[in-house]
Task: structure prediction
Amino acid sequence: MGGSQSSTTEQPKKAPEPPATMNMSGINEKTFIMVKPDGVQRGIAGEIMARFEKKGFTSCGAKLVHASKSFAEQHYIDLAKKPFYGGLTTFLSSGPVFAMCWKGKGVVKTGRKMLGTTNPKDSAPGTIRGDYSIDIGRNICHGSDSVESAENELNLWFPEGIIDGFAPSRLQHVYEN
Ligand code: RTP
Ligand code: MG
Result:
């Protein structure tokens, strides 16, 4: 066997230094994402968490909660006049949900896009609802619809507070300088 060999003794190039400044504007925006009882029962909670992790968002809190009917009513209080309110809140309190707080630039709007439109029949493939659900009343997940709703929902679901001071070292590989 002959032939030339490329040098294997050459030292790998040093990784570039992290940027001195990153465009951190807005990276502390937070949203409340919840895997509803159907998603927990079907074993999709980990997959949904993984999607937010892989996107680059930072987890600020996660827990299983079995909400009471009155707690579920509080969560969906804005929909109290809708004909489906009773069924929706009975379902939400029917078993454990996986409650999460996610942080990152544009996380409220992007989070909603990742969930997909409310009715899974119209949710794009690639979205969580588009990939995993069929009926509107079993659409797997909830996401806050505004920064203000997120704040209210996080106060409701995480009265003990969230982990907010944590800035993972990977941020310099998530955000551009
Ligand atoms: P979510 O709050 O759960 O993230 O859903 P969303 O913002 O996309 O939709 P929203 O209007 O807030 O409705 C909350 C949940 O109620 C059920 N729903 N049923 N039968 C119906 O016409 C109907 N409309 C809404 C859905 O499970 C929806 O996620
Ligand atoms: Mg909603």
The CA atoms of residues 121 and 134 lie 6 Å apart.
